[in-house]
Write a structure and sequence with these properties.
Length: 258
Amino acid sequence: MGKTFHKILSCVILILLCFLLTVPRLGKSAERNEECLKQEVISFFYCDYDNDGNEELLTVEADSLEQFTEEGKPYGNRICVYEDYSFDSNGSLIPGTVQYTKDKSALKPLRIHAGDINGDGITEIGIVTYKMTQFHPVMAERPFFYAIDGDNLVKVWLGSRLSRPFKDFTLNDIDGDGIDEIVAIEYLEDKREVFAVYDWQGFGFDMKCQSEPYGDISFTHDRHRKCDKLTVLADVEGILELSADETHVTVKKGELDK
């Protein structure tokens, strides 16, 4: 009886010891997940940023949906990367296990994109921020690019601005050279809008070409993942497709409008 009791007691102690050794690691992971999931998703993008064959989920998340820029756009506090994601019966996005999270409240992030902007085979993260910079000390939207290295966001390019104030931008290999360009919608001085394409030049971006001016334009393709074709609305001409060469952005009727 005494030996049996001691054996049972030893097993219980061993189980408790294993549990106590495991809890801190589980707790840290759970705390990380809770830290991201308690927030509101402002922007998200699907991509295989680490080239492991699995698509990850990149998000901009906010502590509150009551945070707005002077122009009334919601901004976030944190960049999160999830290893996986799923959808509920209503089609709503459910983030999975958080792989990375970084507080970027000072940048007031608005939107997130991803693409290989310099042809190095590494997917960079593009974040639309809302802040002042040293050489342009007014609050404005600015394109910042990072690479994710472990638990760090490594700076690739922190642009004070593009050539002109921009309404929106996306990343796409619009000219078929194997490298993603910035394709931006920019405002002209007369308030008309143009599509402008920017190429990486080793230290930053230079405008490669632009379209004819339009009154009001916007992107209509899936903004949450990389697309082969960029589709847009331009004035009242319906769904259009964008392409570009060395000198000009071509806007033509898309498949839905032919």
